[in-house]
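Fold these two proteins, one after the other.
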Amino acid sequence: MAAIDEHAYGNIRVFENYFDATNASHITEAQGHRSGNLASFNLFLSSVSSATIYRLIGGKLYQESYSSMAKVKYAALDTAWDYVERYAEKTIVVTSTGSVYKYELDVIPASLVANFYPSDFINLNQWTIPDRSLTAEDSVAHSLSPASLRVSGDIVYIKQNKYSEAKYCFGGIVSDTFTILEEQDLTMMLDVASLNQKSDYVKTMWEVKIIYYAENGVSVIDKNPLKVLSGNEIGFYEITFRPTYRHFRIYLVVNGSDIGEQFPDAEMGIRSFKMFALR
């Protein structure tokens, strides 16, 4: 359903609820999923056709027979539709073949800030590839080290493409400007599908950096991007933090620099990048 974002990696399943009580389409959607005064979305478990599931919700343990889906509450109707109270769920799944899996579920009030899939990264209206010849147009983004992009299937590959005179092998792409409310936490989710490496010791690192802007959303506060998330392994990564300023851009970086060695062919593949503003 449109108001729910889902990601599964390994035995962990994460959901973010961005139901908007002022959005007519979300209200209609909730009404269509109504049972009594509650609306639920369907939880489908990867590679599970029949199982017994044990769900720990609010300190109470529930046992259910799972055939195709489980129901998870996300909105409630009183005088009007609104979020359900936030809750966390831990669940054990025992399949008919005896396999055991576990997942965690957290339903939280949030608003969607960004939702990028592979084709979005090559959209020049959403992302900028730094180009030093264009610094007159944007002295912040185009002064940074660039990357090159290609899309294959459900993965976008981002390869560092540093300026020739740069000492280190890293480069990236810069997002458009985002704006959130004051005193609001932000959750980033990055699905890293692939990373190459030069050797067992020289690996490609991915980095998510942030560039803050003043209240006008145009004047940059600091031209040096600040790192908020990084790693050198594939997987699903998530971080929640409170931005220092309301207006910002993201610098998504591939880094092939290591102590004593450089990796000019450093490249990462990602499936998606999402951001939610938590309420």
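Now the second one:
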Amino acid sequence: TAKNTSVMVHKGLVYPGVAPRGYVSVAGQPAGVDLLTVDWASQPVPGQELTIVVSQAEWLSVQKQADDGRFYWTSEVKETPVLTGTITTDSRGEAVFTWTPEVGGQYKINATVVDELGNAVRSAAFTWVSSGSQETYVSWQVENNDRIELVADQPLYQVGDTAKVLVPHPYEGPVEALVTIERGQIIEVQQITLNGNSETIEIPIVEDYVPNVFVSVVIVKGGTVESGSVGDRPQQGESNDLGSFKLGLVELPVDNAVKEITLTLTPSQPVLRPGETVTFTVQAADWQGEPLQAEISLALIDKAILSLAETANQPLLDSFYRQRGLGVQTASNLVLNLDRLNQQLEEGAKGGGGGDGMMGIELRSEFEDTALWDPTVVTDENGRAEVSVTLPDNLTTWRLEGIAVTVDTHVGQTTVEIRTTLPLLVRPVLPRFFTVGDQAEIGAVVNNNTEQDRTVQVTLDASGLETGAALSQIIAVP
């Protein structure tokens, strides 16, 4: 026989966390980094000294000959420390490290903490710096294709934010760029001039961009009589009059909360008797709490039915505003330029989820699975509406589900529950059927829903039946 197990071995008693406040910053301007120290259970550990080392990542790209005889670009990164400092976390295990990058490029921020046992634990995060108005050439990684990697400064945006997108390209000198906002179609087009190879472009986030939008940048570099390449950077002494281009694409996720209707359903009473009338007050508001005129569908359903077959509807906001694909293709005739393809082959730049009533007791006979279905309830200018319904005789919990939509496709949904019951309930306990000669125990369950003890008389009224006990009994029900 054989048996094995596994254990987790921690590097130390404390773990550091590093999170730049923005993935993209500007040279010459302060940049903040959030720091955190926690234990094995992710609980804050206060008063920990962190050593911070900021290193600049410089990409060195060269062409190497492969086994097929062609030359391909390979890139190696050289990390050079540019700043070292220390900082101590506060009583919540948090700290903010502020530094000012001098030049554009990619940087790695390392944080090291040493625990009481002498164990050093490290954590790191990358951040990108735009050279801004500086005319400094930044060495970015060179790939064997025509793509560049755009970098957005935040993982999620709110309506009203301004996204900053870094455009790291290999060209030197002013180049023309086509900037498009896309999702399913081309939403906006702008032609700009990039003077440096690490500039940022600003994209105002508007409500139409919910839940996400894509930024595409196509950079075209015209041919010159003096061009060679270290990457695509021109070098004197070589002849090449062919143009080239680079394409970058980045997704900007946008919080869909601005599209959600805050829907409130308030019953006039939470507990009622069968046959009574309940009034539901409907209130609709937008994400800022302002009244909203909306059309609402209301369904009051017996919860017992829903327990057997729960609704298959997914959250309404996700149905309308889930993350969407790009749906746009970008093409350039330079891709099919024969001279350019020949040059690439020569240089190695390869492109690439009820029971009956008796003795005068009121008879309950109206039993329904759905007490209300009204798909066209419209709130007024104050975002308010009222709906009244006479409840069936079911003794149950009713769930009211409201689904709302506006003419400009704001959506929302919510539920509320009420209960129908009686002060005193009698439920017979009987076999489902009898045959002649059967012997069975017959009983009744009595529920007292009042706040006082009760003495009640339970009577069995039957024909063709012989019993060994009294047909009427008086019992105390606490």
